[in-house]
Amino acid sequence: MPSHAPPPRHGPAESRANALVQLATIAPFLAHLKARGHDVERLLGVQNLALDAARDPARLVQAEVVYGLLETFAQASGDPWLGVHVAEQMDMQAWPITREALAGGETLGHMFTGLILSTPAFGTSVRHRLEIEAKETAYVVSRKFRPRKVPLQVIGFGFAVHLRFLDLIEGGWSGADVVLETPSARALPAGYRGVQVRETGGTTQVLRFPSRLLRAKVVNPPEQILATLEPHGRPSLTRAIAAVAPDILARHEDNLPRAVAEAIGLSPEELESGLAVLGTSLPREMRRARLTLAREALQANDAPVADIAARLGFSAAANFTRFFKTNAGETPRAYRQRLRADQAAKR
After folding, report:
1. How many other CB atoms are found less than 10 A from the CB of residue 176?
2. What pLDDT sits at residue 223?
3. How far apart are CA 317 and CA 168, in angstroms?
4. How far apart are the C-alpha atoms of 47 and 42, rounded to whole Å?
5. Taking each helix axis from N to C terminus, what angle separates 282-300 and 332-346, rounded to the nearest 10 degrees?
6. Strands 204-210, 196-199: parallel, antiparallel or unpaired by DSSP?
């Protein structure tokens, strides 16, 4: 009889490597701190991050980079429940994740469904799901790996956002009917909003509430807002590498694995392991990034080939020409001339 081998199990390094988050999702924290006079550029610098990177939706980092950054923010602001307070005061129409959930949300059920559908585009570190039974519904957020430290600010932020959705429904809700199951009760102020808090010590956080509230209509339903951000698809380790490649190549880093891993928030071993799970490697992804950047540069302007070669980390223009011909089938000069001829023919 044929034997059926069990599917391969991914280890912790692989899980961490593929648990990514758009860095731009910290925007509510940056706005909150900036409004209170904090130097957000200096605070980002603690993790060797720049403000431009924090505004770029294509920039992906390992989830624990965000966790650590938000804890740094909390310590710098002297607010142990910064995540809760940011969520309570932020403009939910301005943050892409909640904006997508609010669009067309006629009932609480619609809004929570929208939230579940919108989150995968912004991160792969957690899973969101609704577990609906006759009397009780659970909104469950489970992490795909066990963080080194409990991400208190992220947990507090998430619970506060979920309760703000409850605040929008007609007829209101009672704290006595709501239970928050959290890895650590320290993520929330004592007695927070009168809800019941249960500490679980795990990696899952759960909001439990009466199922009848799913049908409750939203008071003053928000207007449907068209997304203004370019779609970037589901975050992945290969996208994270492509986002950091231009800066790393321009610096002519001697140790590419270490430079790329540090930019994303991983160790070189975790980077290698995570790419292996995806069936690729760092040399292959850097080659792909170099080729894409080369084509974009040759299309964009008349910069000398030698300048483009230097920006892409080549020690000589001849090496760049050889690389481009091998991977694109023609020299950089021939590629540029062909593009110009095609453009002229269309006029």
Report:
1. 9
2. 45
3. 60
4. 10
5. 50
6. unpaired
- Report which of 322, 325, 297 is spatially closest to residue 311, judged by C-alpha positions: 297
Taking Cα atoms as reference points, which of 184, 211, 209 lies closest to residue 198? 184
* Of the candidates 103, 101, 134, 102, the residue with the CA atom closest to the CA atom of residue 116: 101
* pLDDT at residue 116, as a whole number: 95
Q: Which amino acid is at 16?
A: R
Provide the whole-model pTM: 0.84
Tokens read off for 35: 């409004």
Contacts of 318 (CB under 8 A, 6+ apart): none
Specify the residue for token string 């021939």.
Answer: 334
Please report, for the chain, how many H helices and E strands are present, in that order. Answer: 16, 7
pLDDT score, position 14: 78
Q: Report pLDDT for 220.
A: 60
CA 68 to centroid of chain Cα atoms: 14
> Is 133 exposed, middle or buried, given 0-12, 13-18 or 19+ CB atoms closer than 10 A?
exposed
15 and 145 Cβ atoms separated by less than 8 Å: yes
Instruction: Give Cα 193 to chain centroid, integer Å.
Output: 29
The answer to whether residues 141 and 205 touch, using CB atoms and an 8 Å cutoff, is: yes
Cα–Cα distance for residue pair 325/104, rounded to 1 Å: 50
Positions in the chain short of pLDDT 70: 1-12, 220-233, 347
- Quick one: which of 117, 101, 85, 90 has its CA closest to 27? 90
Q: How many CB atoms lie within 10 A of CB 80?
A: 17
Q: Which residue from 128, 145, 204, 194 is spatially nearest to 166, judged by alpha carbons?
A: 194
- 3-state DSSP call for residue 168? coil
**Tens of pLDDT along 30-77?**
999 999 999 999 999 988 899 999 999 999 999 999 999 999 999 999
Cα–Cα distance measured from residue 284 to residue 262, given in angstroms and rounded to the nearest whole number: 18
Q: Give one DSSP letter per residue of 21-65, joined into a string.
A: EEGGGGHHHHHHHHHTT--HHHHHHTTT--HHHHH-TT-EEEHHH
